[in-house]
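User: Sequence recovery, please. Input:
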């Protein structure tokens, strides 16, 4: 199974510390031109889009729940008030604490549940009792059903057929309304595979300005559209294991500031330009980020074609900074000895999100023998095969020295 347990496996202690982490979020600073003086987004309504064949209209901005939702009830309230009504959580976020926080909100605001499109997910594991897992999640969430249930973090579509009957049974029991998976590894192949399964309703995938122009992602999106699969985007800022703050990035930031929004807000806007993407699931652990992202969603300015092209050029100019999640390529090139893109993701948390403890925790969740062999593997074939041209061996050394 995939790595997502690594990605999301915040301990309860770490989870409670995550509320102030700006790097998890899509926008690190509010923009005066888009936000009112008091920090609240300008008047307007949160746009909604139809989530594929579910037929449900959901907010284009979703609240990712990988933060201390228990002690940030006001933030939940504000998200709700501002129309951010797609809420995403997971058992793996704080070992159930994120779900507990959402549940507390629903208990305190009984009328709110009907407004919220509630999503949770469980990391697949051999021998797991998924019904018991779902029941426990519903209990923490203080609700009888979730609108959408994801198998969390698959890396290949072959992981899914085992869930076909179970998903149908859970729908029949009224515990879930819709079913699908999330993935940040081999996303495009997973999406193409999903398009062949008529029982997948929605997928949540890594999607950002770096991936939106690639022929394979376009093909995967088209396949989902044709078969009515709803697509939700995550990891939308395109951060990678190398942090450069390059001239090219600064230039892009300056360009968008002149237009009245940050490059981070513009990156969200670029994604909303793609009608196939229904919603952006964003980690927004504080009001500053929530406010900036809501302002971006409500703002009706469309990016010009040249603006979108600017991102395409930026992606090309900083190609070697980003791991595109095509794990089957590099993992195959090292005979499966190292899940390279899992290590890359740890580095991304460290360097792009600036969350050292999360990065170390994700890294530590790799099997001990995997960590032990990181510096002994020959990565030369993987480097040749890597479409991003990443200096894999050097980055594996960086990961070992920074995160071990
Ligand atoms: S091949 Fe390169 S870009 Fe793709 S997952 Fe591996 S390291 Fe990342």
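Assistant: Recovered sequence (404 residues):
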């Amino acid at each position: 199974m995939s790595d997502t347990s690594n990605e999301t496996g915040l301990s309860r202690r770490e989870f409670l510390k995550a509320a102030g982490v700006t790097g998890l979020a899509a926008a690190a600073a509010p923009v005066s031109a888009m936000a009112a003086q008091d920090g609240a987004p300008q008047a307007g309504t949160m746009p909604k889009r139809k989530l594929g064949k579910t037929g449900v209209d959901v907010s284009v901005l979703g609240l990712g729940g990988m933060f201390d939702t228990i002690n940030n009830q006001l933030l939940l309230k504000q998200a709700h008030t501002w129309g951010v009504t797609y809420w995403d959580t997971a058992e793996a976020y704080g070992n159930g604490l994120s779900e507990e926080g959402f549940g507390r909100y629903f208990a305190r605001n009984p009328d709110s549940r009907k407004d919220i499109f509630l999503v949770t997910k469980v990391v697949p594991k051999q021998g797991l009792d998924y019904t018991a897992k779902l029941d426990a999640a519903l209990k923490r969430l203080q609700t009888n059903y979730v609108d959408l249930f994801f198998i969390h973090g698959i890396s290949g579509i072959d992981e899914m057929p085992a869930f076909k009957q179970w998903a149908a049974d859970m729908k029949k029991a009224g515990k879930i309304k819709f079913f699908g998976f999330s993935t940040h590894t081999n996303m495009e192949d997973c999406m193409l595979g999903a398009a062949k399964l008529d029982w997948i309703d929605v997928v949540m995938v890594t999607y950002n300005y770096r991936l939106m122009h690639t022929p394979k992602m376009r093909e995967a999106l088209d396949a989902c559209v044709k078969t009515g699969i709803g697509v939700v985007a995550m990891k939308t800022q395109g951060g990678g294991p190398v942090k450069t703050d390059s001239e090219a990035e600064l230039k892009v930031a300056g360009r968008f500031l002149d237009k009245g929004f940050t490059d981070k807000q513009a990156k969200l806007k670029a994604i909303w330009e793609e009608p196939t993407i229904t919603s952006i699931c964003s980690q927004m652990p504080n009001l500053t980020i929530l406010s900036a992202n809501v302002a971006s969603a409500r703002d009706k300015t469309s990016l010009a074609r040249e603006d979108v092209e600017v991102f395409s050029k930026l992606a090309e100019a900083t190609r070697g900074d980003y791991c595109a999640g095509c794990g089957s390529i590099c993992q195959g090139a090292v005979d499966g000895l190292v899940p390279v893109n899992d290590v890359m993701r740890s580095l991304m948390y460290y360097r792009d999100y600036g969350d050292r403890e999360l990065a170390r925790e994700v890294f530590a969740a790799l099997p001990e023998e995997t960590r032990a062999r990181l510096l002994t593997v020959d990565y030369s074939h993987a480097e040749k095969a890597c479409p991003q041209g990443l200096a894999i061996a050097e980055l594996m050394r960086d990961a070992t020295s920074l995160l071990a």
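The first strand starts at residue 48 and ends at 50.
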